[in-house]
Design goal:
The chain has helices at residues 25-31, 53-66, 81-93, 112-119, 129-149, 168-183, 199-210, 226-243, 270-283, 292-305, 332-338, and strands spanning 21-23, 36-41, 71-77, 96-102, 123-127, 154-156, 189-195, 215-221, 256-257, 313-318. The chain is an alpha/beta fold and 344 residues long.
Length: 344
């Protein structure tokens, strides 16, 4: 890759990048309606240390090491991909890790990401979902004081690693995406991705503008609504510009779709499980029901509805999340049964 035009902050080499940009021939035939469908395989940034979160953690963990912080503290749902990635990064770097997880008791089964958190040695505490909003801030304040007192000062990382430090992960990925488009002779592309804490969406939205990538970015909300995400992207971008002198104060225009949120965060309707099953059988690529499955469903619906009529090439960013499948295994029974025959 050519020398970057931006002076990046300190960064650790943790992700397996660049990730492939792959054409989806059978998915194109099934859902493309004259457009070519591509997938950016950020599910291949590692094996268990995989997905979009690791790109952010390259910068987050470097900051912790540079400032001699001994512990990484972060938060999220009990099946959080970000928490799992943070726990594994901490193990790799010899740091401590503590997780504040949101779950009701019946959701805290020892499977998927939650199992990997504990194998990686992370300590954790669980806040019931009903108390999460009002108690997370004070919990973070308590933990920061405790780890400092114990001589293991902590970096307090927000949900999803989505802040003015984590944003660098997908600013850097935008440079990579530009090289992908050039390599595949794609003149312009519509880029679609799942958005849950807005960090990946912020980085890509800003990055395509910073590097003059011939692309538009659309986030598909997995919770909340489009207005919330658009405000959050703008807010996080302004915080990044205020913090980093090397970032130009450019205006960005986030775009979010919220019609495929379904019954709420961490929950999906049967059509999502069916679509995941269909794509797996068409292309051998597995999505998850919390993030990428919902986003891909929204994308397919928008292609059918004419939202992408002005685009010939559509790139879906696969942000990972396969371990989240396992806590949803019971929901796939009907999808697998009704799709007993391979899809055409």
């Amino acid at each position: 890759m050519a020398l970057s035009l931006i002076d990046y902050p300190s960064r650790l080499k943790l992700a397996q990048v660049p990730t492939p940009l792959e054409f989806l021939p059978r998915a194109t035939e099934r859902w493309g309606r004259g457009k070519r469908l591509w997938i950016k395989r950020d599910d291949l940034t590692g094996s268990v240390l995989t997905g979009n979160k690791i790109r952010k953690l390259e910068f987050i963990a470097a900051h912790a090491v540079d400032h001699e912080l001994a512990t990484l503290v972060t938060c999220g749902g009990v099946q959080s991909n970000h928490c799992r990635a943070t726990a594994l990064v901490a193990s790799r770097l010899g740091l401590g890790c503590h997780l504040v997880l949101r779950a009701d008791q019946e959701e805290a089964a020892l499977t998927g990401n939650f199992l990997l958190d504990q194998i990686a040695g992370a300590t954790f505490e669980i806040l019931p979902a009903a108390r999460w909003g009002r108690e997370l801030k004070t919990t973070y304040q308590r933990l920061e004081a405790e780890f400092k007192r114990d001589g293991r000062p902590a970096l307090m990382i927000p949900t999803g690693g989505s802040d003015s430090l984590g944003v660098w992960g997908y600013i850097a990925a935008s440079e990579e995406l530009k090289a992908d488009l050039d390599a595949h002779d794609i003149e312009r592309a519509a880029v679609a991705l799942a958005t849950g804490s807005a960090g990946t969406q912020t980085g890509l939205t800003a990055g395509v503008a910073l590097f003059d990538v011939p692309a538009s970015v659309t986030g598909y909300a997995v919770c909340d609504d489009a207005e919330w995400f658009n405000r959050r992207v703008m807010s996080d971008w302004q915080a990044s510009v205020d913090r980093w002198a090397q970032l130009p104060d450019i205006t960005i225009a986030p775009r979010t779709r919220d019609h495929s949120v379904g019954p709420g965060y961490g929950r999906a309707d049967p059509s999502v499980y069916a679509l995941i099953t269909d794509l797996t059988r068409l292309e051998g690529i597995v999505l998850d029901p919390v993030y990428t499955g919902k986003a891909f469903k929204g994308l397919v619906e928008d292609i059918a509805g004419g939202f992408y009529d002005d685009w010939d090439d559509i790139v879906f960013v696969h942000t990972g999340g396969v371990f989240g499948l396992f806590s949803h295994s019971g929901h796939f029974t009907e999808a697998v049964r009704t799709r007993a025959e391979p899809v055409d």
